[in-house]
Amino acid sequence: MSLKITVDPGATAPPYEQLRAQIAERARTGELPVHYKLPTVRGLAEELGLAANTVAKAYRALEADGVIETRGRHGTYIAAGDAHAREVAAAASAYVERVRRLGLDRDAARAAVEEALRAGYREARDA
Questions:
Q1: What distance in Å separates the CA atoms of residue 57 and residue 95, rounded to the nearest whole number?
Q2: Which among 51, 26, 32, 52 is positioned nearest to 41, based on CA atoms?
Q3: Does residue 120 sit in helix, strand or coil?
Q4: Fewer C-beta within 10 Å: the chain N or C terminus?
Q5: Rounded CA gap, 93 and 89, in Å?
Q6: What is each CA distance from 124 to 81, 110, 111, in whole angstroms?
Q7: b/e map of 81-102 (b: 16 or more CB within 10 Å)?
């Protein structure tokens, strides 16, 4: 399994953030399964043409967020994490993808979520 990471040097987000975001998203969706062994910092830096410090910074941020765990000399792995939180994140990502395809802007997408939440909680309260 390949990480399939791409870093756009012209993007507004810095390379470490692009790397962090892509790994975090793939872990959230299960594309990178729990216990998947990530490449070494140097190996991934070489593969992507980045400085090792850039990859190390992304790995540190991912570890601080609980997405990955480092096991000393044994390597770095996707952390077990909370399956419920991953499911919620996957649902949110799917919603964002869908509303973008439908052409809704952020305000309209948020308004639709707020209305659905109001209706759902009103139903639960009235039941």
A1: 30
A2: 52
A3: helix
A4: C
A5: 6
A6: 29, 21, 20
A7: beeeeeeebeeeeeeeeebeee
Q: What is the pTM of this model?
A: 0.65
In DSSP notation, 37-59 reads: EEPPHHHHHHHHT--HHHHHHHH
Sheet of 68-70: strands edge to edge? Answer: 37-38, 76-78, 68-70
